[in-house]
Amino acid sequence: xxxxxxxxxxxxxxxxxxxxxxxxxxxxxxxxxxxxxxxxxxxxxxxxxxxxxxxxxxxxxxxxxxxxxxxxxxxxxxxxxxxxxxxxxxxxxxxxxxxxxxxxxxxxxxxxxxxxxxxxxxxxxxxxxxxxxxxxxxxxxxxxxxxxxxxxxxxxxxxxxxxxxxxxxxxxxxxxxxxxxxxxxxxxxxxxxxxxxxxxxxxxxxxxxxxxxxxxxxxxxxxxxxxxxxxxxxxxxxxxxxxxxxxxxxxxxxxxxxxxxxxxxxxxxxxxxxxxxxxxxxxxxxxxxxxxxxxxxxxxxxxxxxxxxxxxxxxxxxxxxxxxxxxxxxxxxxxxxxxxxxxxxxxxxxxxxxxxxxxxxxxxxxxxxxxxxxxxxxxxxxxxxxxxxxxxxxxxxxxxxxxxxxxxxxxxxxxxxxxxxxxxxxxxxxxxxxxxxxxxxxxxxxxxxxxxxxxxxxxxxxxxxxxxxxxxxxxxxxxxxxxxxxx
Length: 487
Description:
This protein is 33% helix and 20% strand. The model has no long low-confidence stretch (mean pLDDT 94). It has three domains: 5-86 and 198-244, Ubiquitin-like (UB roll), CATH 3.10.20; 89-188, Orthogonal Bundle (DNA polymerase, domain 1); 246-486, Uridine Diphospho-n-acetylenolpyruvylglucosamine Reductase, domain 3 (2-Layer Sandwich), CATH 3.30.465. The chain has helices spanning 24-31, 95-102, 112-125, 132-138, 149-163, 170-173, 178-184, 195-200, 226-230, 268-273, 275-280, 284-291, 294-297, 302-308, 314-321, 419-425, 432-445, 456-474, 481-486; strands at 5-9, 12-16, 50-57, 60-67, 80-82, 218-220, 239-241, 251-254, 259-263, 325-329, 334-338, 343-345, 348-349, 356-363, 370-377, 385-395, 401-409, 416-417. Helix 16 runs antiparallel to helix 17 and helix 17 packs antiparallel against helix 18 (456-474). A five-stranded mixed β-sheet has the order 2-1-5-3-4. The chain has a five-stranded antiparallel β-sheet with strand order 8-9-14-10-11, with no helix packed on it.
């Protein structure tokens, strides 16, 4: 018999036997009548349904802004769910609400709750000095169709002034326990200060163990793709919520084995913000911003992006360039597959039906290796790629290419690893002539087709430009754009 799902919703303890696959959005609106959380696109794109989800990590509750239209209720066991109503104070507006009122940040008002939740998260959790850019990153996944961003930016600037250096709330921003300081100052409901103890008192579910053999119709990870595809089926199906297995998360550097061991359920944000990953990819913050909004990055998992098997999967193309190996388990044995051999055709791959991807193995690159990611889409950020590309390049002291792992998405039925191009480049000098010849080899490996995102000719041109950029961005002292064009 299934155990009840137990969590805290704002200031109320919830114990429910609702189906684990029911969306948190539907539960909030239709069961609890908390209609401040709006239903917009129901695909994670608009942010109108943004909530905060708090998880106990050690002795601290860590909150993340999340689109509730992609989150299964079963994953909320032991969590703190905060809707817009849970951020209200009794006798006044909280600072974010007041700034939005003062600057007329709400027009039709439909998107406003999501903006306020995301901005409150930034005030509660940001580990940087307050800035307009920080607020903008926080609400990057919140869309305002009334074009009201100017007023919202002004409200953000007011908050930067209040919480920044010399501001009236400067001490609160610098407090070790900022959430506690906000509660003590009456700027956040007091119940937040009790959440560590409350969540610690919730017993884990029996199924939260090292077991991947359960029979299920669907295995749900981040849900950012599955709920878009078959969201109506999940509350009527037998599902397994994989995020109840924290052992399948995280990044561990194993110098003895020579690789990073990355849990399959590690999210884009967890992966990209890990200091070891940022050390080998210093521009990872920029890549993340191009790939998805914060609300989606805290949900989307590396394994989900790979198993979606889209030829234009952003993280898939980057991980493929990193020479990643995938590890699967079927309850009896473990099996490893090199990612470069994993994709066998459009949306097909080397995986058995009863296997679960448990982790990824990424070789620790040489200290002089340079890694880069490029992408072109209709919108600069937060959009599906037309063409994307990953690169891992290493040259020796003499300027000879020792490693050249390149990928291109959107020009084949699979995320394309340029095997022939790598063979051609390695052992040659890193200069404009080598790169021009290498680009010619790369074109021979591509077979783009025309679709809604562009013609085959356009995609081939984009691929040429992105691959050129890999070299000019990573080795500008050796390969300039002008030199490439001169040939």
